[in-house]
Amino acid sequence: MSRTAIVLGAGMVGVSCALSLQKRGFAVTLIDRREPGSETSYGNAGVISRASILPLNNPSLWKSLAAYLRNDHPAIRYRWGHLFKNPGWILRFLAEARPSRLQHRIAALDSLTSLALPLHRALMDEAGVRHRLRETGSLKVWRSEAGPEKAQAEKLWFEDHGVRCEVYDRQGLSALEPDLNPIFSAGLLQMDSGSVDWPQAIVQAYAALFASRGGRVVTAAIEDLSKTADGWSVRTDGGEKRADIAVIALGPWSAEILKPLGLAVPLNVERGYHRHYHAQAGRKLSRPFLDVEAAYMLAPMEKGFRLTSGVELAHRDAPDDHAQIDEALPRAKEAFALTQPAETTTWRGSRPTLPDSLPMIGEAPQNPGLWLAFGNQHIGFSTGPVTGEILAALVAGETPVADPTPFAPERYL
After folding, report:
1. Domain residue spans of the chain
2. Which of 48, 188, 217, 281 could join 194 via S-S bond, C-beta 3.0 to 4.6 A?
3. Three-class DSSP labels, 165-222
């Protein structure tokens, strides 16, 4: 008989873990309170990023702290009450910005992002959704006159780390993206990244692939996790499920399910918002772009153009604050011919983040058969498949596709 597994969480990471375990002969049940891809994995720019190898808390953060302390920067906002309630996490996050802590984290992130597009490409072929993938790269653009120098410096840095980039001047950007207004002095095309036209549809297609191969997808609220004599038990509002192993891939909810087991995970969240807009007739974009100085991304999507905001440090369930995305809209309209909203709602989500900006992938200490896969911060959509492959290989006693050491739960548990 095959071994059994329960995966908690049906976002990109959880679905990927389920597929990877299934490939290794496990009978897998995937459980979430909502349909696959309906939580954190729903709200992103759809970028499968090769270039996301520099953690947010890198040494340059110290130069920006004074600007961030005013709490009016488009890239980062925060709630003072949240910071005061989480001083330990904030101090550990800042401590990771020391130069001595940087290179091994870059190498760890590189080991994930270098495999992101190839693994997604293979899954999309299997799931029949390759048509949703654009292999046109991802674009960063600068407004200031310092843009050309900054773009060139980033190109050299990225190429030193194996990431192909190309610098564009104002005229070159107009040729690359003709409908982008000519307000940018320079751009950097990250050539080895891809993007999709609807992230949730990709997660749902992967979940459908999992189900077509005999996997079980259960929509139920998860109430409790406990050890049994021969495995793990999950209690939901639809009944109890048991399996040999359990995988926690609940993103920003992961710490809560682990706390009753005595596992105190230093997990925080980076909140973000998005809205969808129409554009003037005939206007299009070939790829997502990041307006560096205005700190928003605009991505072409199936249902219009998705505008995403910068990071908000606040409690996961705190009321919305639309200040960042409200301020991003006029800046985005300066860059591209957005018109009326394509929908009336503003989406908010929370990206799970550990102090070192690396995910937790591996077996929980002192809890045999309990496996952890969360903390992928803002690159979970990109790195879900490689996270799943690392975890499933460890479970099966294989050599993983990337060194799991930097992601070991023991570093925090």
Report:
1. 1-55+102-126+198-266+355-413
2. 48
3. EEEEEHHHHHHHCCCCCCCCCEEEEECCCEEECCHHHHHHHHHHHHHHCCCEEEECCE
The answer to whether the beta carbons of residues 45 and 231 sit under 8 Å apart is no
> For 350-374, what is the mean pLDDT?
98
Q: Is it true that domain 1-55+102-126+198-266+355-413 has CATH number 3.30.2380.10?
A: no
pLDDT single digits (tens) 26-75: 999 999 999 999 999 999 999 999 999 999 999 999 999 988 989 999 99
Place of tokens 């036209």: 197
Amino acid identity of 79? R
Provide mean pLDDT across the span 128-141.
98
DSSP secondary structure of 315-366: -TTSPP--HHHHHHHHHHHHHS-EEEESSS--EEEEEEE-TTS--EEEEPTT
Q: How much is the average pLDDT of 259-269?
A: 97
∠ CA 368-385-127 to the nearest 5 degrees? 125
Per residue in 207-216, is it b (16+ CB within 10 Å) or e — as a string? bbbbeeeebe
Residue count of the chain, please give it: 413
Tell me if residue 74 falls in helix, strand or coil. Answer: coil
What is the spatial distance between Cα 403 and Cα 367, in angstroms, rounded to a whole number? 22
- Are 327 and 341 contacting, i.e. CB atoms less than 8 angstroms apart? no
Give bridge partners of residue 165 from the DSSP assignment: 190
Q: How far is CA 107 from CA 51, 54, 93, 355, in A?
A: 12, 9, 18, 17
Q: Is the pLDDT of residue 402 over 60?
A: yes
Dist CA 160 CA 291 (whole Å): 23
Q: How far is CA 282 from CA 92, 285, 313, 336, 338, in A?
A: 48, 10, 37, 12, 11
Query: Quick one: how far is CA 30 from the chain centroid?
Result: 20
Q: How far apart are CA 17 and CA 245, in angstroms?
A: 12
- Give yes or no for a contact between 8 and 257, defined as CB atoms under 8 angstroms apart: yes
Q: Are 86 and 268 in contact (CB under 8 A)?
A: yes
pLDDT of residue 2: 76
Provide the token pair at 137. 């790269």
